[in-house]
Write a structure and sequence with these properties.
The complex is a heterodimer of chains A (266) and B (344). Chain A is an alpha+beta fold and 266 residues long. Chain A contains ten helices and ten strands. In chain A, the strands form four sheets. Chain A has a three-stranded antiparallel beta sheet with strand order 1-3-2. Chain A is globular and about 55 Å long. Chain B has 14 helices and six strands. Classes of the chains: A alpha+beta (266), B mainly alpha (344).
């Protein structure tokens, strides 16, 4: 009865409601996606079997393709949680931010982005960002105001703040990876395993290659003697655990209590 | 290996130079002819990790360069995926719509897609949409075709997302989205704002805040009248505006409507209701008001200061709440471990 997913997809109210909800949230973790998907079926098509999430998304994407939009899957850099967002395909820009923020705010974001990309740890300190406030284009911005704008970026899920330092939110990486790689081709770091943009991660002290924490976790899983895939030297950092959604729910410990895996291990 | 300071500085200078050059080139990107790049079409749909051809790298976002302009840079692309005529009687698919438009040959299709992206972004942010903004950021020199581009964009959005774009203020050309799906179900348990997207409520909250956190009824209606919404005139979208404001939104706890103390003859005023305090914030409402006036929140200095203070208080409350949760969790785990040590 259901056609294969290779055909052009069919949009029903189940998919439309799902898209509305995804848009409202901006970015969602995988278990939220599944929960909302089930909810949408319950509302519009109670007796249908719920599609596997991957098929559901592929179906939607095949319809959105002609609008140069897709639901894109990524993984958070610090603990490997799968996340999803609706991204524009055709643009190489940060167009989602462009009409949202004033000229000086956009420039503040760009300054923060540059500091983050150039940093060793993938984090830029609040102090260093705020010190650039005088160089911003557009209307003059006070430091106090700039602090507020940075908080706005955090609320809108473009930046994450940890202990007074800022890095890119997973959503920003999902949306802007292409743009970042084209705009800063010399400065960007790439993960040796997945070849995607790398902001936070671990690096080999001998040859300098870098890997995302979740990529390290997968690559060295149950390996007693982890060695650098490039130069074979002993891998000196703590190997994080592979993200397991089941284990996480059972333990019931809130995310804020988990020991931060942010590594300054370069 | 960590890069030295000098090489980083040099790289940064190179980038600035490159961007300045690209800005000049970027100004001409609007004139890229439509038929010229079939190869870039495949690159766009194919392996995205490849370097995009020169036509694409011209399109460094002008927004980040500082010039307000369109932020989309699509080379006109022929869609290569095949449509097997999948539309059924009950459900429409975008495929049939695309075919009907003769997508590949149409010079406006690029603008339609850009407008779709722009509108979806506004929808996501629950922001007001004006004709002026649409022309300024997307339509630009094609503004003679505004109506057609808007119509096609809204059709696509309606089909894919089930939301309708309607002009809520025909005088000042404000538009808003309305979901065709009934969204009264309790959809999430997250603490994201669930405030209904009725422009009416946001405007009322704005007037109340700007007026010093309470606004006489007359002041609120004065603003509504400017938008073509009158208390005692049936409105094609809001129905009975007086009832919506003084009963429905009050019942839903978004507004409070009370008699002005010691007023004789009795006059009435509006205040924020508890649900408005919970689901939105002074800063968010101020941002909405600023956008409506095509300016920024700091253009209302005393309100901005108040909104900043409110944000600080909220942040402190969040920190306190998290600390409380952490303390509870620690207490729980200590109890558990100690009970383990007792159990034999």
């Amino acid at each position: 009865m259901q056609s294969s997913t290779k055909r052009m997809g069919i949009m029903t109210d189940v998919h439309r409601r799902f898209l509305q909800l995804l848009m409202t949230h901006g970015v969602l973790e995988e278990w939220d996606m599944k929960r909302l998907q089930r909810h949408c079926y319950k509302v519009h098509d109670r007796h249908a079997t719920v599609d596997k999430l991957e098929d559901f998304i592929n179906n939607i994407n095949s319809v959105l393709e002609s609008l140069y939009i897709e639901i894109k899957r990524g993984v958070t850099e610090d603990d490997g949680r799968p996340i999803y967002a609706l991204v524009n395909l055709a643009t190489t820009s940060v167009s989602k931010m462009a009409t949202d923020f004033a000229e000086n705010e956009l420039d503040l974001f760009r300054k923060a982005l540059e500091l983050i990309i150039d940093s060793e740890t993938g984090f830029a300190s609040s102090t260093n960002i705020l010190n650039l406030v005088d160089q911003l284009k557009g209307k003059k911005m006070r430091k106090k105001e700039a602090e507020q704008v940075l908080q706005k970026f955090v609320q809108n899920k473009w930046l994450i703040e940890k202990e007074g330092e800022f890095t890119l939110h997973g959503r920003a990486i999902l949306e802007m990876e292409q743009y970042i790689r084209e705009t800063y081709p010399d400065a960007v770091k790439i993960c040796n395993i997945c070849h995607s943009l790398l902001i936070q991660g671990q690096s080999c002290e001998t040859c300098g290659i870098r890997m995302h924490l979740p990529c390290v976790a997968k690559y060295f899983q149950s390996n007693a003697e982890p060695r650098c895939p490039h130069c074979n030297d002993y891998w000196p950092h703590e190997i994080p655990e592979v993200f397991d959604p089941e284990k996480e729910r059972e333990s019931g410990i809130s995310k804020s209590n988990k020991k931060s895996l942010r590594s300054r291990q370069h | 290996m960590p890069r030295g300071q000098k090489s980083k500085l040099r790289a940064r200078e190179k980038r600035h130079q490159a961007r300045c050059e690209n800005q000049d080139l970027g100004a001409t990107q609007a004139t890229v002819a439509k038929g010229e790049s079939p190869s870039s079409a495949n690159l766009l749909f194919g392996d995205r990790s490849q370097n995009l051809p020169a036509a694409e790298t011209l399109s460094i976002p002008e927004a980040l360069q500082g010039a307000p302009s369109t932020t989309n840079t699509i080379a006109p692309v022929s869609c290569t995926s095949s449509n097997e005529g999948a539309s059924s009687q009950d459900e429409k698919s975008l495929g049939s719509l695309r075919e009907a438009e003769g997508w590949q040959e149409d010079p406006l299709s690029k603008k339609v897609v850009s407008l779709v992206h722009f509108l979806l972004q506004k929808y996501e942010k629950k922001e007001p949409i004006t004709k002026g903004d649409m022309i300024k950021f997307v339509i630009r020199k094609d503004k003679g075709h505004f109506n057609e581009i808007l119509k096609r964009a809204t059709e696509h959005i309606e089909l894919a997302f089930g939301v309708d774009l309607k002009e809520v203020d025909p005088i000042r050309h404000y538009y808003a989205f309305f979901s065709k799906l009934d969204l009264t179900y309790d959809e999430t348990t997250s603490d994201e704002e669930k405030i209904p997207k009725t422009g009416l409520l946001m405007i009322a909250l704005g007037v109340i805040f700007i007026n010093g956190n309470r606004a006489p009824e007359e002041a609120v209606w004065e603003i509504m009248n400017v938008m073509g919404v009158y208390a005692d005139r049936k409105h094609f979208l809001y129905g009975d505006p007086r009832k919506v404001m003084t009963k429905d939104l009050v019942q839903l706890k978004y507004l409070e409507y009370q008699q002005v103390p010691n007023s004789d003859p009795p006059r009435y005023e509006f205040l924020w209701g508890p649900r408005a305090h919970a689901e939105t914030s002074k800063m968010k409402v101020l941002e909405f008001v600023a956008k409506m006036h095509d300016t920024v929140p700091s253009a209302f200095p005393s309100c901005y200061e108040e909104a900043l203070r409110d944000e600080e208080q909220r942040a402190q409350a969040r920190v306190a709440a998290r600390a409380h949760t952490a303390a509870m969790a620690n207490a729980r785990s200590r109890t558990t471990s100690s009970s383990f040590s007792h159990a034999k």
